[in-house]
Amino acid sequence: MTRPLASVPSASRLRVPLAVALLFGATLLAYLPAVHGGFIWDDDAHVTRPDLRPVHGLWRIWFELGATQQYYPLVHSAFWVGHRLFGDNPVGYHLVNILLHASAAGLAWRILRRLAIPGAYLAAAVFALHPVHVESVAWITELKNTLSAVFYLASAWAYLRFDEERRTRWYLLATGLFVLGLSSKTVTATLPAALLVLFWWRRGRLSWKRDALPLLPWLGLGAAAGLATAWVERMIVGAEGEAFALTAVERCLLAGRVIWFYLGKLLWPAHLIFIYPRWDVSAGAWWQYLFPLGAAALLAALWLLRRRRRGPLAAMLFFVGTLFPVLGFFNVYPFRFSFVADHFQYLPSLGVITLVSAGIARGAERLTGRAGWGRHALVAALPCVLAVLTWRQSGMYSDAETLYRTTIERNPGCWMAYNNLGNLLTDEGRDREAIELLSEAMRLQPDFAEVHNNLGRALLEERRFPEAIGHFDRALQLRQDYPQARVNLGVALFQQGRDAEAIESFDRVLERAPENAEALGNLALVLVRQGRVREGVEHLERALRARPDYPEAHFNLGNVLAGMDRIDEAIGHYDQAIRARPEYAEAHNNLGVALVRQGRIREAIEHYGTALKLKPDLAEAHDGLGIALAQEGRISEAIEQYNEALRIRPDLEEVRAHLRSAQDSLRGIPHP
Questions:
Q1: pLDDT tens for each residue of 221-270
Q2: Cα–Cα distance between 489 and 479 in angstroms, integer?
Q3: Three-state SS sequence of 300-354
Q4: How many Å from the N-terminal Cα to the C-terminal Cα in the chain?
Q5: Are 129 and 392 in contact (CB under 8 A)?
Q6: 322: phi then psi, degrees, rounded to nearest 5
Q7: Are 493 and 502 in contact (CB under 8 A)?
Q8: pTM
Q9: CA distances for 126 relative to 182, 214, 383, angstroms
């Protein structure tokens, strides 16, 4: 039988459904600023790719190593289902993450109640509303954190039932949930050790037969999953190389510093950043030894205190043990950018949160007595403050540009934020801003292939071909098996009229990956320009079979078909391009051209207008809109559009001809 909770709201005075509703409602309100946030960073590697969206994609997610960025098949299955429900709308994914986070908090409350730990509801509320968890909840990629936490805690709850009742059904349920947790994230492998700490805390000793023996299969499963994940991180994700070359001593120094960093952010959650500065770990710096020595001293002091109170040592063992996979002894890919990240301490934080919440609850009880609103108000103040901080922190995730600009403001040396923001602005056509940002990223990290590729792409958009080609070449020197850089190099060569070299570049990509959609689609353009139109169409169709929602391939195939007077088919592909990318201004423009050719003038005007809303300096759209308006007899408006096109591109002689024709028409001068 559990004793009454020494927290607010007390279980004896508040019905469980109302307490759960309050927990979920407060969590949702705190995370409202992030609900409409878009996709960021590697979300596109997690939200199901087109080639994995058919039913067969589920089989690949589970049984084809490398089909997904990391081998977390349950997470990617959840994303697969999510795409069927939400498509590419991020709101649904954000709501699912918030719901899972609130569910994890609810499960934590249930477990702490079962253990009769004071401040159980307070601990659950702090876990739900602590701003250090915003990265895990507001970042769609971190569904692996929230989903695995639900299975981790549900498994722990079921195992506690087994420990009390020794019934096989509870053991089997707990084991099944543990396996599902491992399939979501390997941090679940720390659960058997956490349960042993918990049993030691409850009983003061461990029994081999009662406590350890039933968990041996779990320890084996967890070890196997951990080794597999470490291999995937190195061999598939890319967590190896100079950035990870730390000696054994340096890894110990790093581990000590990581522990104190996370403990500090939990107890004083100020200056939280998406990407923290990457520390320079050096065995030659004497002061860095203070971190592991301090951590060892803290654990030793808690060990000496254990005869009076086992709780503090148990909490710290849970905290450090659950952090162990990311302390620095194993390579994980984000170490390339920073050795610490808020989402790494999502589950570990429960140990410290529970300890502090129990202390607050007991302290409040002593100050104000067992009953009374004074105690309730005193204890409730902490979740309220944390909720405000979480609401403010969630605002960083309202969109990718805000997130990266805030990161740069708080961490000016973060080359990754400059790189990602520059890439984002290139996609939006803001090439000059992008070049400035990407140049800074290159200055900070001169030997990172992705930065050179992205800078080359931005320069290519500005038609600075020699510079762009130089950066693509440098990217390929740094990483020879970099297909995107080789495709971009081919595009640059094509735009310079160097067709033979462009074909060679695309062919080299297709030798390794025959269904690379980007290589097929761009090779098609070279073939069409060389008069090999049928081959070009075949390559574009192959690209679309490999990637059905590839907007550029639909756009280019539409252009080729329009040139062959197959206007209906061209319109179909322009429509597909716009469905895949609604902000595709050039596709709206060319669809307008095709509609004019069919005499569908009003529809054409609508698409020209959309193109110009998306890209006001698209001279071709101003010209096309002028032609459509002229055909409707709106000559004065047409002249305005021609003049605007010439303001943007004075070299367009065809537009000058259209303008003269419209002016003559206005003066009543007939034209043949």
A1: 999 998 888 888 877 777 777 778 899 999 999 999 999 999 999 999 99
A2: 14
A3: HHHHHHCCCCCHHHHHHHHHHHHHHHHCCCCCCHHHHCCCCCHHHHCCCHHHHHH
A4: 97
A5: no
A6: -75, -25
A7: yes
A8: 0.86
A9: 25, 32, 6
